[in-house]
């Protein structure tokens, strides 16, 4: 039975962190691969109305990534980071930086943990730690939640068709 999976965000006031939890109707090995294989990542990460171009994407321990989302008006938004740990199919720990900030240094530390659930399902828990409460709150206010929801819905479709 396929259920409509809902994304949950937990962001306590005054804290520099947030948690995103999402279940998928696919085993964690497939979900992990969709998070780490650039040929799959480009098909789902980000809002529906944006195209994604990968400059480089090495999701192995010590690897680096950079990608660009482009909106329908041609505005480009770059993101980059370094992978600190990639343990298949359990977890990925990486930095994340939006290149559009007026100054550099607003780096987020993301930890994505992939858990098995019954019936061939899985759960991803993302723990993001920001440099400040203001950075975290700014990310939330930017519409990040909407883009993540759309991306995860696109990932559902991708997993269904694999």
TrEMBL record:
Q: Which family does it belong to?
A: Belongs to the AHA1 family.
Q: Which InterPro entries match?
A: ASHA1/2-like_C, START-like_dom_sf
> Mind telling me which SUPFAM superfamilies this protein's record contains?
Bet v1-like
Q: Which domain of life is it from?
A: Bacteria
Q: What is this protein called?
A: Activator of Hsp90 ATPase homologue 1/2-like C-terminal domain-containing protein
Q: Which one Pfam family would you cite for this protein?
A: AHSA1
**Domain Activator of Hsp90 ATPase homologue 1/2-like C-terminal as annotated: residue spans:** 25-159
């Amino acid at each position: 039975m396929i259920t409509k999976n809902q994304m949950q965000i937990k962001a306590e006031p005054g804290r520099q962190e947030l948690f995103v939890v999402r279940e998928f109707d696919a085993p964690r090995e497939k979900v992990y691969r969709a998070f780490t294989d650039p040929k799959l990542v480009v098909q789902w990460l980000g809002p529906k109305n944006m195209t994604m171009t990968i400059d480089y994407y090495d999701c192995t321990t010590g690897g680096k990534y950079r990608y660009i989302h482009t909106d329908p008006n041609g505005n480009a938004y770059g993101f980059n980071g370094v992978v600190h740990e990639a343990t298949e199919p359990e977890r990925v720990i990486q930095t994340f930086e939006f290149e559009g900030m007026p100054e550099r240094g607003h780096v987020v530390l993301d930890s994505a943990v992939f858990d098995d659930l019954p019936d061939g399902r899985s759960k991803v828990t993302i723990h993001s730690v920001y440099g400040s409460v203001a950075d975290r709150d700014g990310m939330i206010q930017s519409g990040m939640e909407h883009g993540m929801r759309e991306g995860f819905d696109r990932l559902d479709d991708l997993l269904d068709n694999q």
